[in-house]
Amino acid sequence: MIILHFPESSNFVYLGISTPKPWHNPTFIACRPFSILTFIMFIIVLKQEINKSTILFNYFLLGFFALLSMWFKSSFMLSFLQTVALFLTYFWITKKIEFIRILKIGLTFFPTIIIIIILYKYVYANNSDNAIGFGFGDFWHHYSKNILISIILGILFPLYVIIIGAKKLTFDMKIA
Description:
Blueprint (H helix, E strand, L loop, with lengths): L25 H25 L5 H17 L1 H20 L5 H10 L1 H15 L22 H18 L12
Helix pairs in contact: 1-2, 2-3, 2-5
């Protein structure tokens, strides 16, 4: 593992957003294999839906891995479900997939969505001291000297992959 630390962006080597942080987070470590399997199974299910074939066991695996990922740590699933919704909406608008097939994929994530609702209801919606506060960079400033540099460092790798792989990123690859 290569550890990169940019003193301009963070006061700490271990706390914050740079490379070694997620490797020492127990819930992240527990969630990671199920998040990866959820992503892989989503690609498999999406491919079979585009090809108009159905293997029910793949739906079960997708739902099961999504549920386990959500159970260990909700952060991946909260962003993944939104991305799936946007992705499926795009496929529906461009007529690459029928609405009934999108509904089947959506129902696969139903148990995971139930857990999200339960977490919201019991952790954030009751009248206790648990609450979510909103403010730009209020918490972020605890671990970062410069929010803009932190954001840039966070998007460098995805940007690199897009730029280097731009010639290979075509829809003809059938999402694989």
